[in-house]
Amino acid sequence: MVNAVLKFVACCRTAGYRISTSEVVDCISQLELIDMLDEEGFRAVLRANFAKSRREQAQFDRLYHLYFHELRQDIDLDDPESMTERMEDVLRTLQEQANGNRAQRAILDFLQGDPMGFLEIMRRLQTEEVDMSQGRKFNLGPLASRLQVMVQLNDVKGRVERVLEENPFHYAADTRRNLARRFESQLERAYELLLREARPHNESLRQVRTHEQYLRQLGERPFTSLTPREIEQVREVIDRLVRKLKDIMSRRYASSSRGVLDVKKTLRRADRYLGVPMEIRFRKKPPKKGKVVTLCDISSSVWAAARFMLNILYSLQECFTKVNSFVFVSGLAEVTEIFENEEINHAIEKVLKDVDIDYLAQTDYGETFRQFRDRHMDALNKKTTLIIIGDARSNYFHPEDRILEEMREKCRRLIWLNPEPEGSWNTGDSEMFAYKPHCHELRECRNLNQLVDFVEELIL
Amino acid sequence: MFTSVADVQDKLEKADYITSREIATVVFLAAATNKPVLVEGPAGVGKTELAKAVSRSLGLQLIRLQCYEGLDEAKALYEWEYAKQLLYTQMVKEKIQDVIAGAKTLSDAVEKIASQEDAFFSERFIQPRPLLQAITSEKPVVLLIDEVDKSDPEFEAFLLELLSDFQVSIPEIGTKKAVKIPFVVLTSNNYRDMSDALKRRCIHIYIDYPEKDLELKIVRLKIPGIGQRLSDRLVEAIRAIRNLDLKKKPCISETLDWARSLMALSAEELTSEVLVDTLNMICKYKADAEAVKANIEGIVN
Q: What is the pTM of this model?
């Protein structure tokens, strides 16, 4: 039993789970306390110890099913021994032929009931990054490597058939049929694993669809269709909002709770009462403020919304310990300084004029995330709210949603604001479906009302 | 404590809490191996209630710590009672003369006072907060750390010592070990992800909206007078409403509230009119109510 669990743990780790030794020890000692023949209980124990968040459970269930159900060699009641033996005979012949080919060996191991190698290949497919050495970008990379594995699967399938046909072990006809059936169903499972990758559960995702109607007409106009006069009006509205929010915040800080005893002040006060500390003084506790990192897509379609967003955030700078901002199209640039040093409207102009970014390039979210990870990952910590403003239209480049997952793990909350109407998400080159499982909150943000709604909630 | 998984299910049911086997298994193991339980799930599925039910069924005291942003050690663990300390200092001022009476040199006097230091940093001046209460209690207790995802990362880090070794460190006094190891339940709404270190120390359970049969059982247990047919229809309807895309999905407590109001209206049958009349028991947002109204045919039938 212990062996089976250990092997399963090894599989889980290959598939990307972080399972510590102490968790394995816990699990095994807990298994001793329950009736192990009751599968539901057995599964519950494994799940409670190895998949410790809802996000991980979908993949865990898949692995569990694969390992404990699908790959278990069904025992033939008539002659249990010889069937498995025969399968092994066939596989051994194939192993010899496969010699150097790693993928093929992994597939053969999979057929023998050991999915480790195959899971590792899958894991590599999922985390693989675009090879930049070619200087040319395209999104066929992951597809192509997946195709290669499929070719190998087909190859193995063909060779199993050939071996059975040549029949070097002189099996009877129905044994051969049985063997063929069994191999086929195992290979089918490998295919399925490859094609249907389980996405993490993300039930806690907050998807905000409705919003308060603060302003009737102006509030509902999409940012992209504002006239210059209306832009002025929007700015005024934002100014008013900012003032209101600042008032609320300053009141909150004024009444914020006391900190620890201030010995110095208390003793000084005590002098007034002949050294008796009648009044106790406490240190003021600095209010906790959050840190914000924004990633703005500034390709033309999104910029209309992003500029107002930045406008608000920087007007409210004192509500946060720090606001870091980055802009991107096909590459990333930090613009924090511009916003800190310039008047807000100037800063927005300047971003468009001076920042070293190719505005005509095609938007590439994957590249942006890669650059962010390599250069700015330290901007994120557990107190940071990461706000990404973009339509997730990545021109069919590699979306790199795994990097977004890494970013999620580093920050407190990841909020995605999409300036497109929800109906058009997931259409065309939009990668929203790939990014969605990794967000804590997802909102449509295309007019003033929605923006105001979001900012109020962020701050208050 | 519990003797088996079935025993857990049995005892919790007696405490008016119906669980699935999976939840019962985890509770049993947590109790048997002294591990904290980390409970996740959507709002209103009875995460907090699980802890309460465990305390009821075992007859243990429940100590609850509600987490929020800005919660710190002084509010969760202990606080020195400065006022009391200072008052005592004043009151025993004269005594100091007695203590240093025989001292010849200044350093001798300091030495003598130093040996009395413990008098001021002793448990007498500590005001225990929930965590310290749970640790120092003579009888085992159930410790509920509610909505731990709302707390700050610092607080989470500080919980680690408590959860793995069942002890807390107070710098002036030393380490306090648990007298009796408490049964710890942490609940999380998934506002943010918990750290690996915290997860490693807990055993995890996800409570989802209950299966149909389980929910029926709950409705009939909590509202004994309800008819078979009505409760059937009611649970069906709630499940259909949960499938809609709502801002806030109705949870178990809303099912129960709704059932009670239907009973109060002595409705025998679940019709569209009855549903519309009682809709504000289920939907807490206007937009949600509209969505339900738009799909009312599918829900009632």
A: 0.77
The total of structural domains in chain B comes to 3
Contact B192 A383 (CB under 8 A): no
Claim to verify: residue B258 and residue B276 sit in the same structural domain: yes
Domains of chain A: 2-195 (no CATH), 206-255+290-459 (3.40.50.410), 257-288 (no CATH)
Residue of B nearest to A19 (CA): B200
pLDDT tens for chain B, 301 residues long, are 889 899 999 999 999 898 888 999 999 999 999 999 999 988 888 899 999 999 999 999 999 999 988 788 888 888 888 778 778 877 887 777 787 787 888 888 888 878 777 777 788 888 899 999 999 999 999 999 999 988 888 888 888 888 888 988 888 888 889 999 999 999 998 888 888 889 999 999 999 888 899 899 988 888 888 888 888 888 999 999 988 888 788 888 889 999 999 888 888 788 888 888 888 888 888 888 888 888 888 887 7
Nearest to B200 among A20, A45, A54 (CB): A20
The secondary structure of A138-153, three-state, reads CCHHHHHHHHHHHHHH
Distance from CA of A298 to the nearest CA of B (A): 28
Q: Could you tell me the residue range of the domain that residue B99 belongs to?
A: 78-124
Same domain, B70 and B86: no
